[in-house]
Amino acid sequence: MIKNVIMWAVLFFMAFVLQTSFVSNAAIFSIKPDLIIIVLFLMAMKVGIIPGVFIGFIIGLGQDLYIPGVLGQNALAKTIAGFAAGLFNEKVMRVDPFLEIVLLLFTFILNDIVYSLVNVVKFGYSFSAFGMSLLTFTLPRAIYSILIAFIPIFWDYFFKPSIKR
Amino acid sequence: MHWIIGLIKKNLSFFSLLLTIVLSLLMISSPEEARLSTARTLTMSVFYPFQFTFNQVSRIKDVFAENIRLKKEVTELSVELASLKEKGIENERLRGLLNFTQDFSFDFVPVRVVARDPSLGDWTVIVNAGKSSGIELFMPLVGDRGVVGKVIKVLGNLSQVQLIKDPASRTSVLCRRTRTISILGTENGSDFFVQCRKHEDIIVGDTIVTSGLGGIFPRGLTVGVVDKIAEDKNPLFKRARLKLSVDFDRLDELFILRLSPRWMSFRSEIDSLRLLK
């Protein structure tokens, strides 16, 4: 239990540090992967809804505190993303890697929809800009992130004997 | 009371979600500046050493390519410098003739980006110079290709910079050729435009520079180039879409202009007016 907590804490910390430093070097046409959502998704898939919700909230809040934006915007988006990922956790259902990839894509889209809706409500951004941002920003970012997430997802599935197939 | 606890226990997942959503919504709707200030200071101090180390490692791989590029640039700039020196002398002479005075003087503080905003938009960066280097609030940050942003928070050895691509950042700009003044606009932080009246003679290829009107950026810093003219929602206006000259994914060595805003000396008066409102 404690070992798991430490492992996830370290992973989140690493993801946060890499996201704020190294990841911009890996940008392709200004599209960057989002390591924080990947780790949140993997964690929620392993441990369930409640940790997914609370850790999503804390991680989102951490992001909100780090940047000069709307306090609570990332917290809300990550909370809902953590909840959605937790719904399909391994304790509830068996998820093969391909379904996991689809769920990760869904988590990304959900996170960005919530985040952008706050912009629409709070700053009056237009819905057309919201839709365009989903197409031109969210989808490429999700696909790029999924390519990275392939490694831990397939590693977990094929090399961890504890997972029942 | 017991039945409430029972209900919560039975639907713990739902109530967890509800609680966190309510907390988030409360935060979204509350004023945040004072509480954030302390929290940001703490976060920046905690993460800085790690981000600095990662940045150094990732920078090494670029050193060789950068060296070749810099040598080429030095050669080009030497030629340009010689030409500009001539023009400078000419300019000085003409200014003297017209009784023009120098409207700004400042020096450059070289800085490096040590951390970036981890959120969706990537609106801010943290640079490795702060109060100890004489950095103050609202000093402009520029790169070799143009204006990058402005300092919005200063610590001992670090500063947080709001990039001009942040939709919340309102940068006053002008078209270098036509002198049309406008505000740099964006709705998503990746597509930029300036809104101008329909009859304005703004064309593809026009260079957009800072206007100097906001008091933060000096006049004439390159912002970008017009790459498309499009219709605006308002039929009286049109939109000139911009390609920004700075590549915000490749920010590295930059310079803070040690130049306080022109309105800094009467900032207290401005603040008191805001309080009255």
Specify the overall morphology of chain A.
globular
Secondary-structure element sequence of chain A?
HHHHHH
Which band does the percent of strand residues of chain B land in? 25-35%
Order of helices and strands of chain B: HHHHEEEEEEEEEEEEH
Mean pLDDT of chain B: 79
Total strand count of chain B, please? 12
Name of the CATH class of chain A: Mainly Alpha
> Major sheet of chain B, described briefly?
6 strands, antiparallel, barrel
End-to-end Cα distance of chain B, whole Å, is 46 Å
Number of helices of chain A: 6
Q: Most extensive interface: pair and counts?
A: A-B, 53 and 51 residues
Nearest-integer average pLDDT of chain A: 83
Content-based structural category of chain A: mainly alpha
Q: What oligomeric assembly is this protein in? A: heterodimer
SS-derived structural category of chain B: alpha+beta
Measured distance between first and last alpha carbons of chain A: 23 Å
**CATH class label of one domain in chain B:** Mainly Beta
